[in-house]
Amino acid sequence: MPTMWPLWLVASLLALTQALPFEQKGFWDFTLDDGLPMLNDEEASGAETTSGVPDLDALTPTYSAMCPFGCHCHLRVVQCSDLGLKAVPKEISPDTMLLDLQNNDISELRADDFKGLHHLYALVLVNNKISKIHEKAFSPLRKLQKLYISKNHLVEIPPNLPSSLVELRIHDNRIRKVPKGVFSGLRNMNCIEMGGNPLENSGFEPGAFDGLKLNYLRISEAKLTGIPKDLPETLNELHLDHNKIQAIELEDLLRYSKLYRLGLGHNQIRMIENGSLSFLPTLRELHLDNNKLSRVPSGLPDLKLLQVVYLHTNNITKVGVNDFCPVGFGVKRAYYNGISLFNNPVPYWEVQPATFRCVTDRLAIQFGNYKK
């Protein structure tokens, strides 16, 4: 049944625009899955589209007779994936809203490749060989909100991105530098996924993110040695896992007081300076697993909304009775529903039960399984 797949895809696309922050129901995540048939909502951005849900029936006229050779076209979805295409095909219907070109051999986006596609809402170019993008390639895409161009050969952020863009997935490329002004005019941008690029801290020019009001940013699997200090202060989610970060210093997080979720797993963090976490009053989830911490970070009891802490696979040898919960009559507005401490050299039989007095259920605590 060749038409069933696009119908399901359109339904998924419409549903994703309704996501709210921190509910893990937001954006497609191509970090684990290469293709659209394997959509993964594991990491949400919480973004809301700027123009609402696209109305597929309201667009007139329709050009249903137009469909590139070898592609599947239905309900304004044009699916041309896995065809070995060397270039963007011609004869794409002007009323197309979703164009899927992933898993092809496209190496260049030319000036007129998307001519006339004024209604395009989502463009999927994942897993091609794109290394060159004409400065006017995206000019016709006045309503584009989602651009997925991960797993290509790009060495820079594409120029002149559409001002309507809400979400950019550009991970697993060869980008080493993010210059100032590259995101200029993108007032609607909410989510950027740029992990898997050889980015160092020095690769971000001062002011590179000026003007952006991002909700979600991921720079995982890069070459960062510290937390970047010039990211948008509007962030609710920041993921810096799988880098080479060695410490969190006092003012590293000063700018990010609106964070709900902070991902720092799989780094080389040995030290978190006292007071560093005090700048995160709304934090709900903290990932510090797979690092080199020798103790539970100080300041956790003061994070009144914190519910999940990942500390597994570190070098923690002791857990104090006040490491997680407020002392005495200290107020915690949300109890923990997940604390992971497994794969640490902690003699768990020495940990006092009162240590977890502000945890919803003892099953929320994970201990044990330590191997030297």
From TrEMBL:
Top-level division of the source organism's lineage: Eukaryota
SMART domains per UniProt: LRR_TYP, LRRNT
Protein name from the UniProt record: Biglycan
Keywords: Disulfide bond, Extracellular matrix, Glycoprotein, Leucine-rich repeat, Proteoglycan, Repeat, Secreted, Signal
Residue intervals of the LRRNT domain: 66-98
Extent of the signal sequence: 1-19
GO CC, one annotated term: extracellular space
Gene that encodes it: BGN
Disulfide bond entries: 67-73, 71-80, 325-358
PANTHER family assigned to the protein according to its UniProt record, in alphabetical order: AGAP008170-PA (PTHR45712), BIGLYCAN (PTHR45712:SF11)
Quaternary structure, from the entry: Homodimer. Forms a ternary complex with MFAP2 and ELN.
Gene3D superfamilies cross-referenced by the UniProt entry: Ribonuclease Inhibitor
Family statement: Belongs to the small leucine-rich proteoglycan (SLRP) family. SLRP class I subfamily.
Predominant place of localization: secreted
Record localization: Secreted, Extracellular space, Extracellular matrix
GO biological process: articular cartilage development; bone development
Function (record text): May be involved in collagen fiber assembly.
UniProt xrefs under InterPro entries: Leu-rich_rpt (IPR001611), Leu-rich_rpt_typical-subtyp (IPR003591), LRR_dom_sf (IPR032675), LRRNT (IPR000372), SLRP (IPR050333), SLRP_I_decor/aspor/byglycan (IPR016352)
Gene Ontology terms for molecular function: cytokine binding; extracellular matrix binding; glycosaminoglycan binding
